């Protein structure tokens, strides 16, 4: 009976001030969506880093007039370098073949370039991609080396952008969370005021504190959970419309977001939404109910 | 015991010592601001004395933790000058509410509430709302609510303050009947008429001190 009483009080409470309840739920939903999105991006960036850094290469381009001797010397040196995991030699012809594959849509460009004009290169895989700097220092003055290019520097830029987006999402989540919390506090104050007579009687006849507070706290928790459900819907919609829709062209670039990832992030959103609302409501009651 | 409120120039209660036996009917009388209501608040564990102890039902209330207060209050019924009924609930629902919020089932309420409403003389008016009842009838609902849980003590803070003399007498008869069931009744009042008619123990307080404690007293 008491459970039924508390639950009906929660529904009555949410309905009593329905516009405020909706505002509370919407802000909560937006905040939790941002939180979920930044959580997903965190995993996404991790996955991408794994994927890309594993395949990362350092290219040592050789000068046009490199001699046979210089090339062999360099090859021997690289083969015995402890920093280097694998070495591939790319001849001018192979470079030309790759070049053609890279620009299949631009036959004019391909025609304008002769295999001779493309530099031969050594492509290295490093044991630890972050030791690029050592490789660079070691080989930059070696005879026959034209230029050393590290892909990870380019990747770092990409990841910096992704991390920035993730931080912005997180910041938006926090700002919206503050707005949501203030709305929760306000809703609870209004609820406590409109039920002040009941609360006074309950205190007088000796109703237990949890029984007096539970409807208020649960009201906030229910709003938080509804907010997190809406957040889940928003993330699912985002996956459908953005990742599987208009951004699907970037599929090869971005690692895909699975339904599993979204389901994995939902308990986090629901937990954060529920717990934070409960704590806010409870603290607000400390001030406005003094039970 | 002594109670000084912060910012007060003199203590609200100054070295007061009263002992009330189980089953007694006691009036606390005195002018406004004499400290009568402070006694009620102390008995309810709403305020604590600065010095001395408050013992209720053999339990030291002074050192009681606030989380034990709800359970403690279940052994005390309360009636006030302003009734404090819930306006959107009927007489029956007002009384049943007091039972349900301390965990009694609806079945218990269905059995006990009509009984106690009958006792206070409201049989047949269970489903009236407070605004459909007279002041005296509203106070009867409040008494029923205070008594429904069969408390050991009934505290009444000027229960007749808003009622005309005839109605006041009726309420007093009701409190007297409740007292005869063995319930201790502590009543704060400055209604001399009632005190004189009842001829019960009178404790007079003035400026925070007891000036008179008389077994079958009248109003000064």
Which helices and strands, and how do they pair?
The complex is a heterodimer of chains A (about 290) and B (about 220).
Chain A lengths: L1 H15 L1 H37 L3 E5 L5 H12 L4 E7 L1 H11 L4 H6 L8 E6 L5 H8 L5 E6 H44 L1 H10 L3 H38 L12 H30 L3
Antiparallel strand pairs in A: 1-3, 1-4, 2-3
Helix pairs in contact in A: 1-9, 2-7, 2-9, 2-10, 7-9, 7-10, 9-10
Chain B lengths: L24 E5 L6 H8 L11 E2 L2 E2 L8 H5 L2 E5 L10 H10 L5 H14 L15 H13 L5 E5 L7 H16 L3 E5 L3 H7 L2 E6 L2 E6 L6
Parallel strand pairs in B: 1-6, 1-7, 4-5, 5-6
Antiparallel strand pairs in B: 2-3, 7-8
Describe the 3D structure.
The complex is a heterodimer of chains A (291) and B (220). Chain A is α+β, with helices and mostly antiparallel strands. Chain A folds into two domains: 2-52 and 156-288, no CATH class; 64-143, Alpha-Beta Plaits, CATH 3.30.70. In chain A, helix 1 (2-16) packs across helix 9, helix 2 (18-54) packs antiparallel against helix 7 (151-194) and helix 7 (151-194) runs parallel beside helix 10 (259-288). Helix content of chain A is 73%, strand content 8%. Chain A has a four-stranded antiparallel β-sheet. Chain A has ten helices and four strands; from the N terminus they run ααβαβααβαβαααα. With 220 residues, chain B is of the alpha/beta class. Helices cover 33% and strands 16% of the residues of chain B. Chain B has seven helices and eight strands, in the order βαββαβαααβαβαββ. Chain B has helices at residues 36-43, 69-73, 91-100, 106-119, 135-147, 165-180, 192-198; strands at 25-29, 55-56, 59-60, 76-80, 153-157, 184-188, 201-206, 209-214. A six-stranded mixed β-sheet of chain B has the order 4-5-6-1-7-8, sandwiched between helices. In chain B, a hairpin with a 2-residue loop joins strand 2 and strand 3. Chain B is globular, with a radius of gyration of 17 Å. The mean pLDDT of chain B is 90.
């Amino acid at each position: 009976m008491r459970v039924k009483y508390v639950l009906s009080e929660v529904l009555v409470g949410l309905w009593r001030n329905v516009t405020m309840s909706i505002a509370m739920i919407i802000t909560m939903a937006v905040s939790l969506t941002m939180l979920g999105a930044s959580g997903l991006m965190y995993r996404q960036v991790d996955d991408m880093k794994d994927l890309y850094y594993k395949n990362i290469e350092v290219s040592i381009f050789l000068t046009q007039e490199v001699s046979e001797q210089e090339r062999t010397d360099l090859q021997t040196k690289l083969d015995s370098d402890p920093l280097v995991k694998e070495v591939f030699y790319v001849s001018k012809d192979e470079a030309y073949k790759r070049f053609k594959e890279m620009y299949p849509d631009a036959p004019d460009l391909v025609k304008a370039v002769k295999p001779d004009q493309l530099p031969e290169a050594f492509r290295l895989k490093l044991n630890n991609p972050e030791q690029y700097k050592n490789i660079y220092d070691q080989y930059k003055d070696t005879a026959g080396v034209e230029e050393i290019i590290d892909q990870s520097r380019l990747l770092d830029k990409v990841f910096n952008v992704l991390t920035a987006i993730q931080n912005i999402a997180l910041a938006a989540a926090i700002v919206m969370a503050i707005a949501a919390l203030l709305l929760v506090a306000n809703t609870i104050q209004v609820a406590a005021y409109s039920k002040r007579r009941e609360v006074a009687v309950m205190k007088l006849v000796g109703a237990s504190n949890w029984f007096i507070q539970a409807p208020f706290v649960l009201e906030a928790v229910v709003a938080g959970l509804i907010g997190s459900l809406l957040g889940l819907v928003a993330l699912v919609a985002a996956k459908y419309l953005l990742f599987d829709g208009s951004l699907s062209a970037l599929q090869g670039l971005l690692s895909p977001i699975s339904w599993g990832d979204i389901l994995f992030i939902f308990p986090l959103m629901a937990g954060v939404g529920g717990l934070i609302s409960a704590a806010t409501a409870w603290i607000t009651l400390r001030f406005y109910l003094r039970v | 015991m002594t109670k000084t409120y912060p910012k007060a120039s003199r203590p609200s209660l100054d070295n007061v010592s009263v002992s009330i036996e189980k089953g007694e009917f006691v009036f606390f009388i005195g002018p406004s601001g004499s400290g009568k209501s402070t006694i009620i608040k102390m008995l309810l564990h709403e305020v604590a004395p600065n010095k001395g102890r408050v013992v209720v039902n053999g339990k030291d209330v002074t050192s009681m933790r606030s989380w034990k207060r709800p359970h403690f209050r279940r052994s005390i019924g309360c009636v006030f000058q302003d009734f404090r009924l819930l306006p959107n609930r009927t007489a029956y629902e007002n009384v049943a509410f007091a039972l349900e919020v301390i965990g009694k089932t609806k079945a218990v309420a269905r059995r006990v509430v009509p009984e106690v409403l009958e006792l206070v003389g409201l049989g047949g008016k269970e489903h009236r709302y407070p605004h459909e009842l007279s002041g005296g009838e509203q106070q009867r609902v409040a008494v029923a609510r205070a008594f429904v849980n069969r408390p050991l003590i009934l505290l009444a803070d000027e229960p007749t303050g808003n009622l005309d003399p005839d109605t006041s007498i009726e309420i007093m008869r009701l409190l007297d009947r409740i007292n005869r069931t063995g319930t201790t009744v502590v009543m704060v009042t400055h209604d001399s008429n009632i005190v004189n008619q009842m001829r019960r123990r009178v404790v007079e307080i003035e400026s925070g001190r007891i000036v008179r404690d008389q077994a079958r007293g009248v109003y000064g």
